[in-house]
Amino acid sequence: MAVNLDDVDWAIIDQLQQEARISISELGRRVSLSASATTERVRQLEALGIITGYRAVIDLTKVGYQVLAVVRLKYPGNRHQPLHRLLAERREILECLRTTGDDCYTLKVAATSMAHLEALMDELAGFGSTTTSIVYSQTLPYRGPERP
Amino acid sequence: MAVNLDDVDWAIIDQLQQEARISISELGRRVSLSASATTERVRQLEALGIITGYRAVIDLTKVGYQVLAVVRLKYPGNRHQPLHRLLAERREILECLRTTGDDCYTLKVAATSMAHLEALMDELAGFGSTTTSIVYSQTLPYRGPERP
DNA sequence: TGTGAAATTGCTTGGTG
DNA sequence: CACCAAGCAATTTCACA
């Protein structure tokens, strides 16, 4: 499943992880490749599923989500469909990881207020026992991987 | 700190959260605006700090990080500099949130193998007691916020 | 795979409603 | 604020190494 990538591939990945909207020709300049060769490399990285997409990063506070929380959910049994349905509906749930350990799921949830968070927690509590931690600050905002 | 955004702003945000590399004219078509007006809107969203950047999303497994873990760190005392130094150095730490509750920090860590993860955990254990959960799957890969 | 040249398309800027 | 038009870049395609 893992793929062999050379220095140029990694240079491209690094650049696009930092500034995904630079032009192909600018990217080519930075990695010392012609525009057409750069296009081909990027196309390959996309086709191989190494680059899975490009996303704008939004400031949650500025768009109205003043509360960010990490929720751990202890989910008894193995009927996961209802939870998946909730994840699809409630767009306030930004991320959901299934993990080992006592808490089966770790979710990241954005809310506009504590009241809003409370309502979301009531929904989640229907699935199992929850542990909620409010996020003070993103000590390290998400960054992508570098060459192993 | 929060900002007032109209429908067009949100349409732009939605599009760029999904496909950050589309051209300005394509974006303009999708939100029914001319290219120059679209450029101006996007510039404003960036200048206001609502859009904080654009990032390529990389498949961790395919580039060699077979293990993803969520680590909760109980950090006694309040000397946070050493931890911040580690976060800057160890690029395997992809994210770090400071939270309320017993565990002061929640980290997301990528490793190439269990041995690699073990070494990372030894480093983190120097800061306090840790609780580690291996991620089975991203039930919901990260997505951005929608209009509140 | 990478390059270079030509045709197409997209971007930017200044002037206008 | 948004549109239009013109001049300038960037993108794509193709023949060639």
Spatial separation of the terminal alpha carbons of chain A: 16 Å
Poorly predicted segments of chain A: none
Sketch the major β-sheet of chain A. Answer: 4 strands, antiparallel
Name the biggest interface: A-B, 69 and 68 residues
Strand order of the largest sheet of chain A: 3-4-2-5
- State the helicity of chain A in percent bands: 25-40%
InterPro entries (chains A, B): AsnC-type_HTH_dom, Dimeric_a/b-barrel, Tscrpt_reg_AsnC-like, Tscrpt_reg_AsnC/Lrp_C, WH-like_DNA-bd_sf, WH_DNA-bd_sf
Pfam families (chains A, B): AsnC_trans_reg, HTH_AsnC-type
Keywords (chains A, B): DNA-binding, Transcription, Transcription regulation
Organism (chains A, B): Kitasatospora paranensis
Can you give keywords for this protein?
36% helix, elongated, alpha+beta, 148 residues, homodimer, DNA-binding, four-stranded antiparallel β-sheet, 28% strand
Description:
Chains A, B: This is Lrp/AsnC family transcriptional regulator. Chains A, B: Keywords: DNA-binding, Transcription, Transcription regulation. Chain A is of the alpha+beta class and 148 residues long. Chain A is 36% helix and 28% strand. Chain A contains five helices and five strands, in the order H-H-H-E-E-H-E-E-H-E. A four-stranded antiparallel sheet of chain A has the order 3-4-2-5, with helices on one face. In chain A, strand 3 and strand 4 form a beta hairpin. In chain A, helix 2 packs across helix 3. The model of chain A has no long low-confidence stretch (mean pLDDT 95). At the A-B interface, helix 1, strand 1, strand 3, strand 4 and strand 5 of A face helix 1, strand 1, strand 3, strand 4 and strand 5 of B. Strand 3 of chain A pairs antiparallel with strand 5 of chain B, so a sheet runs across the interface. The first copy, chain A, binds a DNA duplex (17 and 17 nucleotides) through helix 2 and helix 3.
